[in-house]
Structures are given as structure tokens and as C-alpha cells.
Amino acid sequence: MAHVNLGKASPAVYQSLSALDATAHANADAAGLEPLLVELVKIRASQINGCAFCLRMHSRDAISKGESADRLAVVAAWWETQYFSDKEQAALVLAERLTNISLGPVGAHKTVDVDAILTAAEVAAISWLVIVINAWNRVAISSHYAVAP
Fold first, then answer.
1. pLDDT tens string 92-140
2. Which of 46, 65, 84, 102 is the most exposed place for a label (fewest CB within 10 A)?
3. Which CATH class is domain 6-142?
């Protein structure tokens, strides 16, 4: 596949994705989602997708918002820990389900009852955040965004 920077090759589409991102964040704010939960969702989806650029960016964003190194270190295996609240666990389940949507309704986290923990507004807000970060992951990966020290 050719190495094309999608943002530079199609700036109008890139700007539309950026506008969707802003709308999804406004929706998350309106639903009352905590900023660290938003970053955790982005980090988990980016881990699944293997997007180094987004992982570095959102890990840094999470740290700047007060996230701990311990929680960041275990987010890839969050279900094995006691670090995450019920709401964070439900959000991470949604992030995994939507990011792995082609695998069908699978997951090792059947003990997390998303519908009992999150409101419809929270489910919608988290879902839009996941949809947008998945799009950004694909832009960054296919555009070969540099991730150098």
C-alpha cells in the first residue's frame, strides 16, 4: 500500500473527522463522563488496534489529567485488577466490543453488566468516542504517523 498521509491528501475529510471528534467529546461532557474515563476508552481501543501514535498521545493526555502509572500499566488487562470502577469497567467493555465488532459478541468480561451500570446517554457517548478513536487509529496507522522518542 502506498504511504499517503490521509490528512494532507484529503483535508476536507480529515477536518470532518476532527469535527465529529469534537462533537463526540461534547456529547461525552454532556453525558457527564469523567475525562480520565474518556482517555481510558481511547487507550484501550488503540491498544487493540495497535496504534502507537494514539497510544502515546492518549497516555500522555491521561497522565496530564492525573492518571497513575499503575493504572496505565494494567489497562490492557483491566479485568484482572481492582484498579477500575464499575463505570470504567463498563466503558472498557464497550470499547472492546465495538473495536472487535467483527468478532461478534465475545469477551471474557461477562460479569460486567454494561446496561445496569451505564445510562443510555453514557452508552451512546462512549460508543461515539470508540467509533471516533477507531477512525483516528486507522488514519494514523495507514498514514504511517511517526512515533519516535
1. 999 999 999 888 765 556 678 898 999 999 999 999 999 999 999 999 9
2. 102
3. mainly alpha
